[in-house]
Amino acid sequence: MTRDESTPTTDTLDHRKGPSDIVTTFHNAPQTAIRDQAALLDRLHTPVWIFDIEQERMHYANAAALRLWEATTPQALYARDFSSTMSEATRRRLADYLPRLARGEVIDEHWSFYPGEEAISLHCRCSPVVMNDGRTGMLVEGMESDISLDASSLRALEAIRHTPMMVSVFDGQGRLLVRNPAALEARQGLSSFDACFADHAMAEQLLQRLEREPRHALEAIMRVNGRERWHHVDLCRATDPKTGLPMFVMGEFDITPRKALETARRVSQRQLEVVIEGLDVGLLLEDEERRVIVANQAFCDLFGLEVPPEQLVGMDCREAAESTKGHFAEPEGFVTRIEELVAERRKQTRDLLAMADGRFLERSYTPLFVADEYHGHLWVYRDITRQRHQEADWARKASTDPLTGLANRRSFDEAARSIARSVKEEACQAALLMIDIDRFKAINDTLGHAEGDKGLRLLANTLRHSLRQSDLPCRTGGEEFMVIMPGMSPEEARTVAWRLLRQIAEATIEAETLPFYFTVSIGVTGFKPTDARIEAVMQRADAAMYQAKHEGRNRVAVH
Ligand SMILES: Nc1nc2c(ncn2[C@@H]2O[C@H](COP(=O)(O)OP(=O)(O)OP(=O)(O)O)[C@@H](O)[C@H]2O)c(=O)[nH]1
């Protein structure tokens, strides 16, 4: 069929009854004008028809449309029952149209027609029309399409009409010839090949590539309804069967969710590596076969390994433990404990390991289970040497008198309670001395507090150097000192007290930096199993000390 054949004459109209639909739809013109308008429409080369989608009946067709539908008379076409010839795909497509037309939408799509042996692709503009009974009909203007394919190609195009995959056909210059509804919906307003791609330069290169290669597949960022989406793109070179000119087919589907997932995985993998590398704890990840999966630089540093951590990957962890055990104060214990933990597969944190060089490491062991399946284990080593020293320092400070360096009242209480318990439960003996400087107030008042402090320090040093290791000298108050003497009877302690008393007096005389000398009074008592509280023994020591003061100072008294 050619367009020339379709030239209508006004005669055609004489034996046709124009439907009154046209009146309401087109111009709302007076009835007398119907025939003139219909005659005008018959003169169009463009086929125009009105189709009742619900009843599957034709309501109007101009002369060009009659030829397209291969009808000899309009009446024959209006009487035609389309339900018997309409394919299921076409019925579904039209069923999609109905609500859209009812909403007033104008739908532009390609439709294929097969009059005789011919295949015609028309760009159909489908608009809503109100029919006589008030229902919505479809007014179709079949405009010429750029595409000229043979019948089988058009049928192939029809077949891809219902796929969610986007299919577009371009000519050799990248101008759009036809696209299926999925592509049409995604690319409204975009009609060139390069406009489909976010990267136009890449589109240019692809066109050139297709001149050399018959097909090419890629993943690219494409433009879809003004947004950018990742698509898998299949490009295939073809030839227009009529003109012999090159064209190519592009099939696309959305892979954005997969790409997003891949990106997220890549980012989190990289982030994980950065985190592992940046950690200042030594980290070693083993698989269930006890092979190293990951180690970080901090791990190598802790064990003095002079290889980059990547070189440990794949190494047998049992061998690694054997070769590093020499770093530990108890090498065999280190290896044995690792094997125990692995056998138990129970999380273990804060395992303290003493190193041969005096450092302390804290070890955490975590078995790795994914969905109840064992996948190896994670070892984390942390150097806590500084922390340990700090803690020891704090503990010492908390229990030490800052002026003299002797144990303070808190330590004295703890030690005295412990000794009292031993005396009670183990029937051993212990003594307590209370030492008080004589007339210390006068020294302070005449020479000042700072000079007085020198005296206190001298007394503390004398106690420290004169007593046994097992004795505990403490500064329990201003110028009041106590000495706990485990394993000693009050009588034995009395002898020691006298010796101390003399040594203190001599020390004050010998000390060149001390501008005064002093004596002390000492009260002596013994811990008794019957003492309910340590205050009892302290009171006796206190009483003995006051007795010594009372008796003239510079002496020892026993309670
Ligand atoms: N320099 C110095 N003096 C202290 C410190 N703690 C207490 N003192 C002083 O020690 C003196 C204790 O005096 P008292 O307990 O009254 O008795 P005393 O002068 O030692 O006389 P007797 O104990 O009766 O022999 C007071 O002057 C206190 O201020 C201290 O940390 N440094």
From TrEMBL:
The UniProt entry, under PANTHER family, shows: DIGUANYLATE CYCLASE DGCM-RELATED, REGULATORY COMPONENTS OF SENSORY TRANSDUCTION SYSTEM
Q: Where is the PAS domain?
A: 268-306
Record's protein name = diguanylate cyclase
Keywords in alphabetical order: Nucleotidyltransferase, Transferase
Give the SUPFAM superfamilies listed for this entry: Nucleotide cyclase, PYP-like sensor domain (PAS domain)
Q: Where is this region: Disordered?
A: 1-22
Domain called GGDEF: residue spans? 428-559
